Amino acid sequence: MENTEIKNTRIGNAVRKRDPRYDCLRSLAAAAIIMVHAMPVETAGRGQWIFNHLTTPVLLSFVGIYFMLSGMFLLERGTEHLGEFYKKRLIQVGIPFLLYGLIYYCYNVYADGIHLPLWQHPLVFLRQAVTAGIPRAGHLWFMYGLAAFYLCAPFLSRMVKAMTDQELAFFLILMFGIHMLESLGEILGIDIKPWAQFILYTGWVYYFLLGYGLKRLWGQRKIKGGIGGLCFLGSFGLLLDLGADCLLPGWIPSTPHKLPSMTFLCISIFLAFEQYGNRIPQWAGKIGQFVGRYSFSIYLIHFLILSYFVHPKLTAPLFEKHYMGGTVAETAITFLLSLGVSVFLDWAVTDRVKGLLT
Fold it and tell me: What is the percent of the chain with per-residue pLDDT over 90, rounded to a whole number?
C-alpha cells in the first residue's frame, strides 16, 4: 500500500494486521457520532438550517458504517470454531460494555442521589444492563444490536459464503428494494410493515451484510467513474434527503436507516476508503491506527462526557452566538477528552482483564 503502513496487532495468540484505511474510517465514525449528539436539533435562521440538514445525513450514515465494518470482518472470519468465536467476541465486547456501563451506573447513583445497600448495586446494575435500562446511556442501543448480530454472525457467514457473487449481489439489491418500499409506503400512507417485518435481513442487519458484500464484490474492482462516481452517488443520497426535508417537512421517517439516501451515503463513503484509502498520507494513517484502536471505547464514554461535562461546563455559551462553531468546538473537545479517558481506562482495566481471560 502506498503511503500507509499495516501494523500487526496481537489478539490472544493470533496476530492480525491493522489496515489504516479501516482505522481511519473508525476514527471518523466516532467523531461523526459525537457531532450528531453535539449538534442542537433546533435551528434559528436559514444558515443554521442548511448546516444542520447538510451535515446530519452524512454524520448519521457513519452509524451504518460502524455496522458495515463489523460485518465485513466478522462474516469473513466467522467460520471459525463456534465456541472460540463466541469467546473472543464476549471478551472483546462484553468487557468494555460492562466497564463503561458501570461508569454510567455510578454517575447515575451520584447524580440522582440513589441510596441502596451496597450488595444491591451489582444486582441493579446487571438488571439494567440486561434490559437495556441504564439511564443516561440511550446510545448503548448500538451494543445490543451488535451483540445480536454477533450471535448470528457464524451462521450468516456460512450463508453468504455459500452464495455466488451474482446471488450475493441480487440478495443485497432485493433487501434494498424492501427498504425502498417501506420508505415509499410511509410517504404515501401505505403501511407495508405488517408483512415486511417478517423479512429477516432488513434494518440494521442489512448494513452488517452490506459491509461484507461490498468488500467481496467491489473491494478489488474499480467502480465505474472512479472517485467521481462515488462522489456522485453520495451527493445523490444527500440530495434525496434534502429533497425530502424541503418537500415533506412534516414527515419524520420511523426508520431513517432504511432510507435509500442513507444507504447511498454509506456505500459511497465505505467504497471511497476501500478503493482509495491507500492514498492516505502515512502520518494520517498512523494517527488513524492509534485512534482507531480506541474508537469503540470513545463511542461508549463520549455521551457522558459530552452531556454532563463539556456542554454544561464549557461550550453552552458558545451556542448562543455560534451554532456551527459551537458544534465543531464541542465535538472536538469531547472527542479529545473521550480519547484520553479511553486510552487510560483501556490500559488500566480493559486490556488487563482481557489479558487474564485470553
Answer: 75
Distance CA 348, CA 352 (A): 7
Q: Which set of grid coordinates corresponds to residue 160?
A: 453468504
CB-based burial, 67-89: b 16+ in 10 Å, e otherwise: bbbbbbbbbeebeeeeeebeebb
pLDDT for 244-253, tens place per residue?
A: 999 998 888 9
CA torsion angle for 1, 294, 309, 126 (degrees, to 10)? 150
- Average pLDDT value for residue range 80-91: 87
Rounded Cα distance, 37 and 53, in Å? 14
Inter-residue contact 22 to 273 (CB < 8 Å): yes
**Cα 257 to Cα 176: distance, rounded to the nearest angstrom:** 11
Distance of alpha carbon 113 from alpha carbon 156, whole angstroms: 45
Q: Give me 17's grid cell.
A: 494486521
Q: Contact, 139 vs 303, CB < 8 A?
A: yes
For residue range 155-182, what is the model confidence (pLDDT) as tens digits? 999 999 999 999 999 999 999 999 999 9
